[in-house]
From TrEMBL:
InterPro entries in the record: Glyas_Bleomycin-R_OHBP_Dase, Glyas_Fos-R_dOase_dom, VOC_core
Organism: Halioglobus maricola
Protein name in the entry: Glyoxalase
Source organism superkingdom: Bacteria
Pfam families: Glyoxalase
Residues in VOC domain copies: 4-134
C-alpha cells in the first residue's frame, strides 16, 4: 500500500501566533494562506490552521487524557510518525520552543513490539501534538 499525504485542519486562536509556532518554531514551510487560514507542510502532509475568533487570545481548546504507559495521553491529539533521526532533531527543536511538554520525549513500550520514541506538547491554542518514531516502522506501526 502506498501512503498518501493526509490533510488535517485545526482551529487556532491567532493566525500570527500559529505562523510563529508552526512556521518559525517547528520549521514547517508555509503554503497557501488567506486572512483566516494557513497551510503548512508537516513532513509532507497538508496541515491547515483556521482562525476561531471565539477562542479569544487567551483561550485554549479543552481536552481529556487517557492513561497509556503510565502517562496521561491527551485526547484529541495528532502528529506524524517520523524516522528516528527526524524525531531526534524535532525533539531538540521542540525543547527550544515549548515551555512545557505534556509528555517529555522518551521511549515507550521498551522491548515490546510497539516500542517507540514519542513526545507530546501543545501549540499555543491548546492543540495537542504527538510525534513518534519506531526503530523498525514496518514491524512496529500496527504491531499487537
Amino acid at each position: 500500500m502506498t501512503l498518501t499525504p493526509f490533510h488535517l485542519a485545526v482551529q487556532v486562536r491567532d493566525i500570527a501566533e500559529a505562523r510563529a509556532f508552526y512556521g518559525e518554531g517547528l520549521g514547517f514551510a508555509e503554503g497557501r494562506s488567506a486572512e483566516h487560514w494557513v497551510d503548512f507542510d508537516m513532513f509532507g502532509h497538508q496541515f491547515v490552521v483556521h482562525l476561531n475568533q471565539a477562542l479569544g487570545v487567551d483561550g485554549k481548546l479543552s481536552q481529556i487524557s487517557n492513561p497509556v504507559d503510565g502517562h496521561g495521553v491527551p485526547v484529541p491529539h495528532f502528529g506524524v510518525v517520523l524516522e528516528l533521526p527526524q524525531w531526534q532533531s524535532l525533539a531538540v527543536r521542540a525543547r527550544g520552543l515549548v515551555d512545557e511538554f505534556i509528555i517529555e520525549p522518551y521511549v515507550r513500550f521498551e522491548g515490546q513490539p510497539g516500542e517507540q520514541a514519542t513526545m507530546f506538547f501543545a501549540d499555543p491554542s491548546g492543540n495537542a501534538l504527538e510525534f513518534k518514531a519506531f526503530r523498525d516502522i514496518e514491524q512496529a506501526l500496527f504491531a499487537r
